[in-house]
Write a structure and sequence with these properties.
Layout: H1 2-16, H2 26-40, E1 43-47, H3 55-58, E2 59-63
Antiparallel strand pairs: 1-2
Organism: Brevundimonas intermedia
Signal peptide: 1-16
Keywords: Signal
Amino acid sequence: MRILILSAAISLPLLGACGTTGGVNSYQKDMDALEAECTRSQGILTPTGLQTGRPQTEYACKITGGATRIPPR
């Protein structure tokens, strides 16, 4: 009986730490901003093959639309 109470007292706080906070992590925020910027440039994100923990180095924006140096009006 004591073992059951002791194991429950130890495991419940540990299981609570596994829950999500409901917020968006910084990687996802950076990824969303990168995707929005790339979409504005009429491009798509393509993986570079690197794994750095930073979306800016893990993905490149491949321009698929009419690439021009003249800004749109």
